[in-house]
Write a structure and sequence with these properties.
single chain, 445 residues, 8-stranded mixed β-sheet, 4-stranded parallel β-sheet, 14 helices
């Protein structure tokens, strides 16, 4: 087993060398979510990058190119997940000692199976393991979904992540100088965004004050970094929007979004990551049907799947109704934000709590966003170009010439039914096909 895992780590779970030029033809191609799909599309990939994308009659490919016929398939850009937490859970154990290179590499590989090109881990990556994995990916030694991060997030002392295992990974700051120093330290580390927590956890901890939050946001912008906030309360969202925050990692959950907040977010360019699947988990009175989805089974161990199934039994009617009421309010907030012109990104908060699983939850989140009022194309836009832009990943989010060739080949059209994003035929990251069979075999072992 150990030799098998090391082999996966070394080759990056990609299925070998690609030809110099490959032409993918005859598929429906969603080049980017801002334009209609090309019904008989051609995608040309050279050295890991898209060199052409267009209608079959309008693209001239080299005569010696390898050709892949995708008749009947749909091609879309690979997903970018803008809010996760890598990996504190292993089996039933949720603890700091589970944050290992082996676990993180395994999880990045599972994301690759699910068609995810990159993940942004928000604020719980304190030590050298994350830096080493990122360095290995940059040098080409390691594949899987790209690991991007906020490093250590910022909050008052002991007031960051709710989960006890994650709490030590966050800064605890008391003064403006401490807050600015934390930003400078993470900027020097090469993080992709800065994360703050503004939440009193039902009155049990102090919230990050407006003065300290403004200092963090200002210092982040000085270092050309965006600031993303964990929020819970509507009132906090409003002053953060005025303070220049770039995005919210959650919807507010005490009250629904109102017109004032929507206007503030739209006019100040504040991006919303709705992050609804983690709340939907609490509304079921019986095991949901997605537990039998083939993709869920492919990226989740049988032991974990059985434990998760059992967790949906024995809930009280009162707890389910409270959760359902909160969730309905979140759906209405999404619809209001869409109507008001707020820009959407995408994330799942996977890994934040026990058994909120990675990889498959991305596809659940897409379905939830559509049920809340987004069109399938709008949800795909949030999960591709929206998150790529928020995370500063200029190579991802679309299949236009010059972008990295990161895309999913689907057996059915997600614009007809967003659940078709789960019907994955192949995944290509950096122009090379992911060996999905090798990864899923290891997962099931």
């Amino acid at each position: 087993m150990k030799r098998f895992l090391l082999a996966l780590t070394a080759v990056g779970v990609l299925s070998g060398q690609s030809p110099a030029v490959t032409v993918f033809e005859n598929a429906r191609v969603i080049v980017d979510a801002g334009r209609p799909p090309i019904e008989r599309g051609v995608l040309v990939v050279q050295n890991g990058r898209v060199t052409a994308a267009g209608d079959r009659g309008a693209v001239n490919a080299p005569a010696n190119a390898a050709r892949v016929d995708l008749t009947g398939k749909t091609v879309m850009p690979a997903i970018v997940n803008g809010h996760i937490h890598l990996w504190f859970q292993r089996g039933p154990l949720f603890a700091a000692e589970s944050y290992t290179r082996e676990n993180i590499v395994d999880q990045l590989n599972r994301y690759a199976v699910a068609g995810v090109a990159a993940v942004l881990s928000l604020g719980t990556d304190a030590g050298p393991i994350a830096d080493a994995i990122r360095a290995d990916q940059r040098s080409g030694k390691l594949g899987g979904a790209l690991f991007r991060m906020a490093g250590r997030g910022i909050a008052p002392p002991d007031a960051g992540p709710a989960n006890v295992a994650m709490k030590p990974s966050a800064y605890g700051v008391r003064t403006e100088e401490e807050a600015r120093a934390a930003v400078r330290e993470q900027a020097a580390r090469g993080v992709d965004v800065i994360k703050i927590w503004v939440d009193d956890r039902n009155g049990t901890v102090p919230k990050l004050s407006p003065e300290l939050a403004r200092a963090v946001i200002d210092e982040a912008h000085k270092h050309k970094l965006k600031a993303i906030a964990h929020i819970f309360y509507l009132d906090d969202a409003k002053w953060l929007a005025r303070a220049g925050v770039n995005g919210f990692a959650h919807l507010m959950r005490d009250r629904e979004a109102d017109d004032e907040l929507v206007t503030l977010m739209r006019d100040n360019g504040v991006v919303i990551i709705p992050n609804m699947a983690i709340n939907q988990n609490a509304i079921y009175t019986a095991p949901p049907d997605w537990l039998d989805d083939p993709l869920f089974r492919a990226v989740t161990t049988a032991e974990d799947a059985d434990r998760i199934r059992a967790s949906f039994n024995g809930r009280t009617a009162q707890s389910v109704e409270r959760a359902a009421a909160t969730f309905r309010g979140m759906e209405r907030s999404v619809a209001r934000m869409k109507a008001g012109g707020v820009k959407f990104a995408f994330g799942t908060d996977a890994g934040a709590v026990r058994d909120h699983v990675h990889a498959f939850t991305d596809h659940r989140e897409l379905e939830i966003m559509v049920r809340a009022g987004l069109t399938p194309m709008e949800a795909i836009a949030a999960a591709t170009s929206g998150s790529a832009e928020l995370a500063g990943l200029t190579d991802l989010g679309a299949l236009t010439p010059g972008k990295s060739a990161d895309f999913i080949v689907l057996d059915a059209n997600p614009l007809d039914d967003i659940r078709n994003t789960r019907r994955i035929s192949r995944v290509y990251l950096r122009g090379r096909e992911v060996d999905r069979g090798a990864i899923t075999s290891r997962t099931q072992r």
